[in-house]
Amino acid sequence: MTYRVLISDPLSEDGIFPLRQASTIKVDVKTDLTEAELVAMMPMYDALLVRSQTKVTRAIIAAAANLKIIGRAGVGVDNIDLTAATEHGVIVVNAPDGNTNSAAEHTVAMLMALARKIPQAYYALKQQKWDRKAHVGVELKGKTLGVIGLGRIGREVALRAKGQRMKVMAYDPFLTEEKADQLGLIKGTVDEVIKVADFITIHTPLLKETKHLINADAISKMKTGVQIVNCARGGIIDEEALYQAIVAGKVAGAALDVFEQEPATDHKLLQLPQVIATPHLGASTIEAQESVAVDVSYDVVRLLNGDLVKNPVNLPSVPKEVMKKIEPFFYLAEKLGVFLTSLTKQVIKEINIYYSGELHDVEVGPLTRNTIKGLLKHHFGNHINDVNAAYLAEQQGILINEHITSHSEGFINLIKVEIKTEDGTKTVAGTLLQGLGPRIVQVDSYNVDLVPEGHIIFIRHQDQPGAIGKVGTLLAKNQTNIATMQVGRSTVGGDAIMLLTVDEEVTEQDLALLNKTNDFKEVTGVEL
Ligand SMILES: NC(=O)C1=CN([C@@H]2O[C@H](COP(=O)(O)OP(=O)(O)OC[C@H]3O[C@@H](n4cnc5c(N)ncnc54)[C@H](O)[C@@H]3O)[C@@H](O)[C@H]2O)C=CC1
Ligand SMILES: O=C(O)CCC(=O)C(=O)O
């Protein structure tokens, strides 16, 4: 099998060696494609690798029938329609660490260039103007740098600013006093930071909450003469508000690597002498480009080999050691879902999954996704996978609850799945027996011992003499051979179940024959 990978933005050739050397992968590099061209080409590709130029829209994702993974060689994934990717079961990965250093260095370069008006002086000198008065700057030493967003890049910038003997005050929703002390900086709220800072640098992602975080109101709270650096994302600063504040003399200068609309060649901010700018160059170093390309390439190779990816964006990442513990349960979880959903034709309203025994202290999210996949496979076929299982369930209005209990009913580990439908509640439970593999051990209130695979006939009936014999005789008429059989009953003569495994796929004729007798309350074929 050969997988096809499309690289639609310029990536470091040295960085994509993991793809080039994989014998099962064919790489095409085609840049500057329009959306329509991508829509037309995508059906033949299994993976798409981009930087920030390609806008991976819903239309492109919807057209990509074979697409399994989108790799973003960089941090920000705002050029990818994540909702559409999740909905279509396409995993998105990025390279969160590869360009941190380059982006931090670029920010510091912009900060220093801004403080000392280096680009303006350079530009004047190139025009043969030796004007020293016009380019008097300010020192960084002793000034306060306000850092909004203290993630990977923000932290590196803060440390470098301390090297310039600046005071650093930062805001990040995850910044604790302890962490701030360790880093030698002051923790503040956004308002506190922007009020005291002489220079402000932004390092958040562009989110609903951060869009126009720096707007006219925020600027009005800043010191007159403040200077602002944005090497994160255009759109975090309200560009019109910044323009007006610079013209009014409130903001003394701005250094911008990013713009709300890129490319931004004729932006009015660029007309202001107080604004210095670069065309989104934060990550543009040989080292960063090689590093991010290597990281996403390896993740594409991992996924296409059926392995776990390292940097998923639309799936929580699970540490390797946890994954090792829960991976053996994936099969069981999915089969419990398939089994249970086969027993009802009603719409599922609620799913409760109980994890117990040795599963009580692990990250069970991946198991839940496998269970949901099993439960909904019936409706969504191969379209459902780990990436979109929870999303699709949510879209159907199904309530999903995970319960961690210590009560494992005598088993070392137990997964119990309960669904609520118009019909009432149905449950199935399974365990992983050491050395023996997975078993279904409970169906509703009946204890059973069933290997969850193959062709199964599930029957609900009244406990009475001859019931078992009748099933054997009827199936024999269709030449259907029973491999194993189990019965369970609530009380003598009460409600009972039969679980038969048969050699071939359960046919409509088998079910029709059993149903015709009216001796059985429910007859269902289950394919596991
Ligand atoms: N100019 C360029 O070429 C590059 C730009 N970037 C951009 O830089 C930004 C930061 O990247 P990283 O540090 O790698 O990301 P990160 O994920 O490590 O850090 C982002 C931080 O922002 C914080 N944050 C989220 N919402 C916030 C809010 N409302 N207020 C304050 N903080 C908030 C998060 O808690 C997190 O600590 C991203 O927007 C990324 O796309 C990254 C690399 C290169
Ligand atoms: O690919 C690039 O050069 C942009 C890098 C960037 O903005 C990011 O990684 O978020």
Fold and architecture overview:
It is an enzyme of class 1 (oxidoreductase). It comes from Amphibacillus marinus. Its EC number is 1.1.1.95. Pathway: Amino-acid biosynthesis; L-serine biosynthesis; L-serine from 3-phospho-D-glycerate: step 1/3. The protein has 528 residues and is of the alpha/beta class. The protein is 32% helix and 25% strand. The chain has four domains: 3-97 and 287-304, Rossmann fold, CATH 3.40.50.720; 100-277, Rossmann fold (3-Layer(aba) Sandwich), CATH 3.40.50; 316-452, D-3-phosphoglycerate dehydrogenase, domain 3 (60s Ribosomal Protein L30, Chain: A); 454-528, ACT domain (Alpha-Beta Plaits, 2-Layer Sandwich). 2-oxoglutaric acid binds at residues 51-52, 74-76, 99, 280, 282-284.
Number of E-type strands: 22
Which ligands appear in the coordinates?
A: 1,4-dihydronicotinamide adenine dinucleotide, 2-oxoglutaric acid
Provide the structure class: alpha/beta
Radius of gyration: 31 Å
Mean pLDDT, nearest integer? 95
Low-confidence stretches: none
Total domains = 4
Strand content: 25-35%
**Considering the protein shown, what is the CATH homologous superfamily of the largest domain?**
NAD(P)-binding Rossmann-like Domain
Helical content, roughly? 25-40%
The second-level CATH architecture of the largest domain is 3-Layer(aba) Sandwich
Question: What sort of overall outline do the alpha carbons produce when their principal axes are compared?
Answer: elongated
Distance between the termini: 26 Å
Instruction: Indicate the CATH class of the largest domain.
Output: Alpha Beta
How many DSSP H or I helices?
A: 18
With strands numbered from the N-terminus, the spatial order across the biggest sheet is 8-7-6-9-10-11-12
The major pleated sheet works out as: 7 strands, parallel
* CATH-defined topology of the largest domain: Rossmann fold
